[in-house]
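Model: Ready when you are.
Researcher: Fold this.
Model:
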Amino acid sequence: MPRAAAKKRSSKSRTKSRKPRRWSADVNTDSTHPPEGLFNKSAGVIARSLASKKVSPKGPGSGMRMLTLYINRAGHNLSATRKAELNKAKKLLSERIAEQKGKTTKSRHKRAA
């Protein structure tokens, strides 16, 4: 009987039940990943590209999450000027998001009236 109990506890069954340690590996999907070299461009180009439906099908909020993830993950390796440019892109993108929210709110109020 002790042999049967030993077989149940194999090392393979323990490793299969473990969760992967790095969740960020699953973040980039084919439908929502930015073009190569995008984060090396100017703030205006970054914000415009991340707000587009081609890069962010779910809207500019998705692009903002991509930019934030990039800044958080690569931040310790970025120069001060590059980090400042990315933060400028973040500001432009947040303005675009606020602008878009303002348009949808206004159009909803017009329909209700």
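Researcher: Now this one.
Model:
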Amino acid sequence: MFRPPVAPLCALLVTLAAGATAASAQPPESAIVLHAARLLEVDSGRMLAPAEVLVEGEHIKAVGSSVEHPASARILDLGDTTLLPGLIDAHVHLFLHPGSEGSQTIEESVPERTLLAAAAAKEDLLAGFTAERDMGTEGAGSADTAVRDAINKGLIPGPRLRISGNAIDILGGHEDANRLNPEQHVLSNATYANTADELVAVIREQHKQGSDFVKIYETGPDSLRDGVFTTPYQYTAAQLKSAVDEAARLGTTVAVHGMGEPGTGYAAEAGVASIDHATQLSARTLQLMKEKHIPAVPTFTVFEYFAEHAATPAAAARERALLDYKVKEFRKQIAAGIAFAVGSDVGPFPHGTQARELELMVKYGMKPLAVLQADLINGAKLLGWEGEIGELKPGRYADIIAVPGNPLDDIAVVEHVAFVLKGGLVVREPVVLH
């Protein structure tokens, strides 16, 4: 298991402090003009070439082949790059890192995990992810509230965050401390709620502690035998509906970990905001998702990582078989015409590398433009920032990245972000060698 020693943790504090001074605490410049070879209009798919963006304060003022250059503006020529809105990851775990999840959540203190989460947020931002949905602290309670608030106050660098606090699970469920000595009373990585009334009570408590939305484990553990996938459900459709109604009363939504039927169907019946992982969706579930505009969030990258980093050849074969099954089902989902959002499940694999998710969604059947629209337009809607992020238009937040080449020709360029602007503040600039 990976456990950072004391010295690197001290260095982490210095790094975070320096990052906050350089990339967060400063106000946005009064005006910036970005010039690049191309700019993608995400909604239409039109590529503007050449392209310029005028940024004033936190927002985009103008977009075009040529824009006004105020006398006080800083001019940044980004060369042969394509300007895109900042990327959105709708499924992250800032409080996890590579290594044994079961061990790290027990052995690392919440303060240590919060420091590591802050570092993870910075890595994701530098990789071009300017907005994220953190899908549960995995046993760190509402510590993600502190990370989100520190970012919003400019104390540390990181993406715009929607947070859930601890995920919710049943006793003996997917994230419980199963198969361990019960006399040690090892706690779950999620918060228990066994009935509809308990779901409502937990949602109210988490909302009090600062959560933006609700994360519920609806399925697990998973099994694939002789090509047949099974995963037990954890809440009925009626119980999930109680959670969805309570979240709506509080002005928010419910996202579920849903690997397969019947749990994914129950989630769709209840009207959740998203079904994450979505490995198995029946024809009825697909129809409900279309009718209710519920996106699937496939999270391919974490499945690929587990297959490539399994402890034994047998484990690798199991993980690869599950990924192959998932790919086949994904192609059925594309054909059914449901909506998708992009989420990687980063945390079990290294933060800052999750742009791989967009490449895998193209590899397994979607067009590059469709994936970018899923990421940016559907992602903005899912995170509750529709009309504020996800497109390079006047009035939107100036969350802008630059990638080499043309992502419509090669989506993999999103893994090589050269420039990041968040809220009008330059976070990452191209390295110029003299």
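Researcher: Key takeaway?
Model: The domain at 87-382 is CATH 3.20.20.140 (TIM Barrel).
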